[in-house]
Structures are given as structure tokens and as C-alpha cells.
Amino acid sequence: MGRKLVTRRKEWLFKIIRIILGFIFLASSIEKIIYPDIFASIVVKYQILPLWSVNALSIWLSYLEAVVGIMLILGLWEKASAILASGMCMLFLIFLSSALLRGIKLNCGCFFLETSTSSPRSWATLWQEALLLFSSILLGFKKR
């Protein structure tokens, strides 16, 4: 009886993590989809991608975030969605770290595209992306 209870609690914990992660990805995609030009200008500030790729990548990434968020919320293709979320989180961490190492101060463009609504990212704020990465890896590699 005790083992079943632990298994049920573990499943509920994974379900809660999956749904929260899904809402985070969906919420972060909304302004990017509505204002692709503003999001593209934020991506340019990272100074990582060639200019010719920024517009397409900005649009593609916005919709990928939305789809992954919806899939996680609904529990569809959970493992694949979690692995995609892990990949995006890893990219976000790499891009932010790279910008910080080069002394570039920027708003990450994560939720609010307008820079007046959020403060610039710092080394102290990377824990947020690391937590998302950890959560998505946990979901992607959980035992069925």
C-alpha cells in the first residue's frame, strides 16, 4: 500500500511540474508571437546569430515555445515536448551566459518584451533558467 501511495504522489508531482512548465512556455510565447519585430530586435542584441537568420528564428522559436507549452499542459507527447523544452532552456542559458560574459546588458525577452517592465538580466537571475532546464530534463527522463 505504501509503495502505491509514493508512486501516486510522484505522478502528481510530475503532472504539476509538467503543467507549470507548459504554462511558463505558453505565457512566454504570447508577446513574442504578437510582436515579432520587438522580439527580433531583442535577439539581435545578443550578438550571437547572423542578422539574416534573426527574423526567421525569432518567429519559429516563438511558435515552438507555444506548441511545446500547449503539449506539456495537455500531456501530449510528453517526453518529446520535455526534451524540446530542455533544448530551448539550454539555448536560453547559453545565450544569456554568453551575453553576460561579453558584458552585454539586456532584457532577455522571456516574458515581457518592453524593457521598462523588467530589469536587465544578471548572473544572479540565471537560476530561473537553470530551474526550468532542470524541470524539463526531469520530465524528459522520468521512468514511465
Keywords:
144 residues; elongated; mainly alpha; 0% strand
How many E strands?
Answer: 0
Percentage of residues assigned to helices: over 70%
Largest sheet: none
List low-pLDDT spans: none
How do the helices and strands follow one another from N- to C-terminus? HHHHH
Distance between the first and last residues' Cα = 20 Å
Mean pLDDT: 84
Radius of gyration: 16 Å
Overall tally of domains: 1
Shape: elongated
Structural notes for this entry:
With 144 residues, the protein is an all-alpha fold. The protein has one domain (2-140). The protein has helices at residues 2-34, 36-45, 51-74, 78-101, 126-140. Helix 1 crosses helix 5. The longest helix is centred in the first third of the chain and has 33 residues, at 2-34. The protein is elongated, with a radius of gyration of 16 Å. The two termini are 20 Å apart. The model has no long low-confidence stretch (mean pLDDT 84).
Quick summary:
The chain is an all-alpha fold and 144 residues long.
